[in-house]
Write a structure and sequence with these properties.
Helices cover about 40% and strands about 25% of the residues. With about 525 residues, it is α/β, with parallel strands linked by helices. It folds into two domains: about 220 residues, Aldehyde Dehydrogenase, Chain A, domain 1 (3-Layer(aba) Sandwich), CATH 3.40.605.10; about 190 residues, Aldehyde Dehydrogenase, Chain A, domain 2, CATH 3.40.309.10. Helix 16 links the parallel strand 22 and strand 23. It starts with a strand and ends in a 13-residue tail after the last helix.
Amino acid sequence: MTIELEDSIPVAYRLQFPIRQNTYLCNGELKTWQGDLQAVQSPVTIASQSDAQTETASLTIGYYPLLTETEATEVLDAACQAYNCGRGIWPRMSVEERIKCIEVFTYKIKEAKQEVVALLMWEIGKTFADAEKEFDRTIDYIDATIDALKDLDRISSRFVIEQQVIGQIRRSPLGVVLCMGPFNYPLNETFTTLIPALIMGNAVIFKPPKLGVLLHHPLLEAFRSAFPPGVVNTVYGDGSEVIGPLMASGKVDVLAFIGSSRVADILKHQHPKPHRLRCVLGLEAKNVAIVLPDADLEHSVNECLLGALSYNGQRCTALKLLFVHEAIRETFLQRLTEKVDKLILGAPWDKEAQITPLPEPGKIDYLNELLEDAKKGGATIINQKGGQVSFNAMHPAVVFPVNAHMRLYTEEQFGPIVPVAEFSDISEPMNYITQSNYGQQVSLFGEDPDTLATLIDPLVNQVSRVNINSQCQRGPDSFPFTGRKDSAEGTLSVSDALRAFSIRSLVAAKENPTNRKLIKRIVLERKSQFLSTDFIL
């Protein structure tokens, strides 16, 4: 898949490439980096005319700093100083003042929407509609987080008297938070940890994902100007070079990481004080759809198509294995393959594009390995266009029948492959889910309430979300997003995230005249941010 640079790209997305980012945010300053830079290649292949010949190439869209341990340590020191064991300006600031800083930041980043959306398309191959949706959803998430904190603050503003003890319970920050988001939602997923961590009073270091770095560049000035020095800091470069030393220092209090369990385990084991480290992790999933014999076929096919192939299947919530009952398997697959073959490959800004280039280097080779392994085990690519490759894009492949001897049965493909397994007895998919290393979500498709009820009750003890006649998904953000087994640690909804990045703290005193008078004076004269009955309307 190629495009003509001058003729095919809408003017709004012709950014001034390459973007040379040679700054990083540390202690309230955008510091200039004089060392090595990492080139960023777009997954979109460009076609151009030269001497009557057509040449294709991957476009270098920018560069970002390859920092070293020295800069990483500098960033860590800035965060530690800003938090200052809870005595810094930010952790002692009132909830209302912190919210104002977040609101200023939100206002500023809205001005960068067009550039961020364009970079989402150029860097990770996300369609315009999905890129715009990611940006807008991030703004909505920030607004919802502010509202949730206001609600929490109102609840916390009252005193409790139990067994002749006066107490006030509020949530306090945890310290220095290291935030690392994934490439598939580099803005939204990063902010779902970064924003609640910030608003609860923590100091934050965030490292953008390896793919999806440049889109954060237009936001750096907003971070710098909206928050006190050292409250938000950025670090770039190879993880072993810059993240390893941060974890090994023992000064990181919270690890917020969305990615693979392998990397999460490495990071956790580098910390010398494991009981001090709190982890909020979103990891792999091998989400299953179970299509029962009485399912509405047209609806089930459409939902499975979206669930398996939205953003090329590069979502942790994607449906990565379909179990279809033998009674409807033939009709289901016929309809599914017809729809899959109608999906259009294109550049991210093509309005009709549904499948776009894959940003991960070597991803096509990996997907082909999975397909060849499945073929050796007796499976077939059953749609006509399945597996066809055009530069960095692959047409989705529907693979059937998939069984336990194939890598696709248990391995998370994270790409445009739709493995399908047939079942005759419901115990087959149920056993699969029970024995799986992952426990994020499952989708059930059927019409009989008795059958669905008998499946729901055991499944909620295996996965964190059971979807009825709908694809797996994260939203709405007010719903808990987590997983069992190797799929997650902690819960990320708007309200749960506030709790994940804070701890309940209590000020208490025996109920007697002296203490009543003392507490009353502190409250009335507004001497304490914590011991207070003020709340935000």
